[in-house]
Structures are given as structure tokens and as C-alpha cells.
Design a protein that fits this description.
- By secondary structure, this protein is of the alpha+beta class.
- The chain has 4 helices and 28 strands.
- The strands form 6 sheets. An 8-stranded mixed beta sheet has the order 17-16-15-14-18-19-20-21, with no helix packed on it. Strands 1-28-27-26 form a 4-stranded antiparallel beta sheet, with no helix packed on it.
- Strand 22 and strand 23 form a beta hairpin.
- Helix 1 packs across helix 4.
- It is globular, with a radius of gyration of 33 Å.
- It binds calcium ion (CA) (4 copies).
- The site of one calcium ion has 7 residues, from loops.
């Protein structure tokens, strides 16, 4: 109201200043009044002669109405002009419902699968699986207690795959960097613990992965063995035997140490076949992925990282690379450019505000057609005193990719501040509502982040 009065007073003051000098003199006359009214109707002056006094009320009413109309129109125009922006904001309004499936440290890798065949996707993490929808825990093998401050679990990566092709998803576990990789056989609804088998004698690098990109339609494992050679693995005809190992690299290649950091699958050279990336370069997939070793292309893909991905971030037709720092600080994308001696990669920082991003996933979270990133802090990766800022909150974020006018933006959205990531996690439509959900296991526990509908 005071603003309205101020506006009125200001307008009256301005109007008075515009009043011709002859109407400011005293004295009334019908002619002067008519002239005043004429100008008044034109909106240029206020009534000033005594005959116009009765007009004052209507004048103030006029002023109020005019201002009210002006304000209303301004609000309408503002509202109309804001509509597209609000639509954009709504489309980016993604939220998640957090469920603490288990508050104990069970594993740092996790996957989902319909373990019991009831049509609902369950969570598998280390020694336990959690039955949907109430996440009732069941032992795969006897439950163990792990010390988050001073040790690790027996599960760095956890994948679900029907290894023996009996229709029941089994569990693959990368137990510890460089150690034997195992799979545990789903007992097909029968009680009891799951029988253990060997996948391969050693699984190195800290980001082994299960992917269907190398051999379309078939999920295969990718990791180096014996601190020496990159390879991929598939189950053979005898499910009880070790997997078949297909060499990708020659022996003594970079990225193959048991504690090497940075491994990813993606089509770097754009030939339609997924390549295998490490921070020192990538192996180009040949037409027959079983025909190893693959050609290695050296490239600088930054410092130690976790999972690595390829995506044409800037839409220029060249595949770029995305990664995050495992034990330090940094989430990056590497812009591919054509150099004189092959591809060159320019590092761009997506985020440098938090540490220990030892797990990275790429998926289109908000359904706008552009891939986004999800990562967080691997809390106490090296205990409460190791790494950089180990005691900071265990943040979980998604980074929304936006492109406009050739400009690349990554908008950081907080999902949670007391969970973070492990060394591998999964994003999938857990509850089958067509929205990607996030499932995590780490030193803080086991968590499900169900994405809520945009309209909620
Ligand atoms: Ca189920
Ligand atoms: Ca099976
Ligand atoms: Ca690009
Ligand atoms: Ca997106």
C-alpha cells in the first residue's frame, strides 16, 4: 500500500510539474475548468481550479485504477515472459526419495536383479541380498562385520549375471584389487547359502566392469589380470570352469596394476565399436573383439580416476571422455580434438568442490536427451585420515549437462549429504516407473534413491 501511495504521490508531483503556468494561478472559470478537464482526459494534468475539486476523488480513483492496471499488466507480462523459464526449471526439478536399506558397512559395490523371481528387482550387495519391496535381507554367504575405519569389505565390485544360464541371476564379486574374482550361484529359490565359483585368478585395476558394449547383446567382464594384461571375460560352456579370457593388451601394459585407477568402456574413435580406456590412452576394438591384442592409442586422459565414459559432450561429432578422481579432487570431461599425431584431449573441470569420487556413473537422469553424471564421495576410502578431506560430508550429486549456444554447462544437484558412493554403483529403473533410480553400497551402508516423478 505504501508503494502504491508513493507511486501516486510521485505521479501527482510529476503531473503538477507539467501543469501549464496559467492553470496554477488562482481563480476559476468554466472555460479554464473545461480546458483542465480536456487535458485531464488526455492524461497530462490534474485538475487545479476550484471547480475541479469534486474531481479530485475521481482523479485519485483514476490514478489508482491506472496504476493498478499498469501493475496488473506488468505482472501478466512478467508471468508470460517467465513461463518458458519455469518450464525449463520444472524439467530440471529432479528429486529422490532416500531409503536406508542397511546402515552397516556391507560392500562398496552393488547391483540389482530379480533374485527370487517374483518380478521385483532386488538389491545385491556383498554377502547379502535385499528383497524388494521391503528390502528384507537374506544371506548369500554368512554375514560378516567389516571395519570402515581400518579396513575394507570383501566386495569392491558387485555384478548380477546369469552365469550358468539357468534363468536365475547369479552374483559376480570382485573381492579385492588383484585378488581372485568369484561368482556365487543363485540357489533358485531354495534355502541355503550360494555356492562359490572362480571367475578368474586375479582381477586388477580398481574399476573392473561388466558391460554389454564390447560384444553386443552379451554382458562381459573387463579387467586386467596378473598386474600385466588387460582382458575381457565371458562364461564358457562349462559354467563350473573359469571364464574364457580374451586378451585386449599385450603383457606389461599401463593401467593393469591391481591398484591402477581409471578404466572405462566407450567408443572413443567413433567407429561404432566400444573401446577400452585407461588414463594413459585406449585400446581400439577390432571388428572381432576376440582377435587380440587390440591396438593401443596413447592419450593423456588425466590423473588417476574411477570409471571412465565416452560421450560427445559438446555435440561436435567427436567423442569426449568423462572421469572423476578416485582419491583426490576433480570431476572432469576431456574434449577430444584432432591433433597432428592423433586425438588430443583438453581437460575441463566439471567440479572441484569435494573429494574421493571413486565411483562415477553416466545416465540421462532428467530425460532431456543429454547424458548426465552421478558421483559422490567415497567416504573414508582410505580410512578417516587418508586421502584429501576424508571427513567431509558424504555427498551424493548428479551433474546435469546443458548445452546452449555452443556453451557447455554442468549444473550440480545435491541428492544427499550422508551416503556418497562406493567403488561401483548402479543406476537403473528399480521400480519400473521409467525414471532412473540410484542404488549404492559403501562404508555408510546400503541405499536406494528412488527418483520421484517430475510433477511431484
Ligand atoms: Ca525379486
Ligand atoms: Ca543362474
Ligand atoms: Ca565432442
Ligand atoms: Ca540429462
Amino acid at each position: 500500500m505504501s508503494l502504491c501511495r508513493t507511486l501516486i504521490n510521485t505521479q501527482l508531483q510529476i503531473s503538477r510539474e507539467r501543469i501549464p503556468i496559467e492553470f496554477n494561478s488562482s481563480g476559476n472559470s468554466p472555460q479554464r475548468h473545461r480546458e483542465t478537464q480536456r487535458l485531464h482526459r488526455g492524461g497530462t494534468v490534474r485538475p487545479v481550479c476550484d471547480l475541479c475539486v469534486r474531481c479530485v476523488k475521481s482523479d485519485l480513483l483514476y490514478t489508482h485504477v491506472k496504476i493498478a492496471l499498469t501493475v496488473t499488466i506488468a505482472i501478466l507480462l512478467t508471468t508470460i515472459s517467465a513461463l518458458p523459464a519455469q518450464r525449463i526449471a520444472r524439467s530440471g526439478k529432479v528429486s529422490f526419495k532416500k531409503t536406508i536399506v542397511d546402515s552397516e558397512f556391507r560392500a562398496e559395490g552393488v547391483d540389482v536383479a530379480d533374485v527370487n523371481g517374483d518380478g521385483k528387482l532386488d538389491v545385491i550387495a556383498g554377502n547379502l541380498w535385499y528383497e524388494a519391496p521391503r528390502w528384507t535381507s537374506h544371506e548369500i554367504i554368512p554375514v560378516q562385520k567389516f571395519d570402515a575405519a581400518n579396513g575394507y569389505s570383501n566386495c569392491f565390485q558387485n555384478f548380477a549375471l546369469d552365469v550358468n544360464r539357468d534363468g536365475w541371476p547369479d552374483q559376480i564379486v570382485i573381492t579385492f584389487p588383484g585378488a581372485k574374482a568369484i561368482w556365487r550361484e543363485n540357489p533358485k529359490g531354495q534355502p541355503g547359502h550360494w555356492r562359490e565359483h572362480t571367475v578368474w585368478r586375479s582381477a586388477g585395476n580398481e574399476s573392473p566392469t561388466l558391460t554389454n558394449l564390447l560384444v553386443p547383446g552379451k554382458q562381459v567382464l573387463v579387467f586386467p589380470f596378473d598386474n600385466s594384461q588387460m582382458a575381457w571375460y565371458e562364461p564358457g560352456k562349462d559354467a563350473n570352469a573359469e571364464f574364457l579370457c580374451h586378451a585386449i593388451s599385450v603383457p606389461k601394459s599401463p593401467g593393469t596394476d591391481k591398484y591402477a585407477h581409471g578404466l572405462g568402456i566407450g567408443d572413443v574413435n567413433g567407429d561404432g565399436r566400444a573401446d577400452v580406456l585407461i588414463t594413459k590412452g585406449y585400446w581400439e576394438a577390432p571388428p572381432d573383439p576376440r582377435a587380440g591384442p587390440w591396438k593401443f592409442v596413447p592419450a593423456n586422459l588425466g590423473p588417476d580416476s574411477a570409471q571412465m565414459y565416452t560421450y560427445d559432450v559438446n555435440g561436435d561429432g567427436l567423442m569426449d571422455v568423462l572421469s572423476s578422481s578416485a582419491h583426490n579432487i576433480g570431476v572432469w570431461w576431456y574434449e577430444q580434438q584432432k591433433g597432428t599425431n592423433g586425438p588430443e584431449f583438453i581437460q575441463h573441470t566439471i567440479d572441484d568442490s569435494f573429494s574421493q569420487t571413486h565411483g562415477l556413473a553416466m545416465v540421462d537422469i532428467n530425460g532431456d536427451g543429454l547424458m548426465d553424471l552421478v558421483t559422490g564421495k567415497r567416504f573414508w576410502a582410505h580410512g578417516p585420515k587418508g586421502d584429501v578431506r576424508p571427513g567431509d560430508p558424504a555427498m551424493l550429486y548428479w551433474f546435469e549437462l546443458r548445452r546452449s549456444g555452443g556453451k557447455i554447462e554442468w549444473i550440480r544437484h545435491e541428492i544427499d549429504n550422508d551416503s556418497g558412493v562406493g567403488t561401483q554403483f548402479v543406476i537403473t529403473d528399480l521400480n519400473r516407473d521409467k525414471l532412473p533410480d540410484i542404488v549404492i553400497a559403501n562404508k555408510k551402508g546400503v541405499f536406494v534413491f528412488e527418483q520421484l516423478s517430475f510433477s511431484k
